[in-house]
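Appendix C: a fully annotated inverse folding record. The material below is reproduced so that readers can follow the format used throughout the book. The structure is listed first as tokens, followed by the designed sequence.
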């Protein structure tokens, strides 16, 4: 009989009529097995939200808000090598700290340690 009460086979604690139990176990139960859309790892539905906050394959925005979107697992490399909003010290050793984007202009135009070509002999001083 479809009206008989049964406990969820996935052990979530829910008791429903037999007719409603199949839909519950397949689509609503917190203990059902689901697959992450980003990394394809299988887990219980109740664990999915926590997983998504750490999933290495999930696309996220740059932590420094440069506008780039990338897989979470590539964030460290992006910050280390690419992101123009990372603050660094001037490579010409003047002591100034600026974003990478600002340093590109600084080292060629305003740094007091930059080399300036002589107007007469064209040597850098």
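Designed amino acids, in order:
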């Amino acid at each position: 009989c479809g009206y008989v009460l049964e406990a969820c086979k996935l052990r979530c604690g829910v008791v429903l009529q037999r007719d409603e139990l199949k839909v519950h176990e397949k689509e609503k139960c917190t203990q059902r097995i689901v697959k992450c859309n980003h990394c394809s790892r299988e887990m219980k539905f109740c664990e999915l939200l926590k997983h998504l906050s750490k999933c290495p394959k999930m696309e996220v925005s740059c932590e420094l808000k440069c506008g780039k979107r990338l897989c979470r697992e590539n964030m460290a490399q992006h910050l280390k090598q690419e992101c123009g909003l990372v603050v660094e010290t001037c490579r010409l050793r003047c002591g100034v700290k600026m974003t990478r984007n600002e340093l590109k202009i600084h080292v060629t135009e305003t740094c007091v340690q930059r080399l300036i070509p002589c107007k007469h002999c064209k040597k850098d001083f």
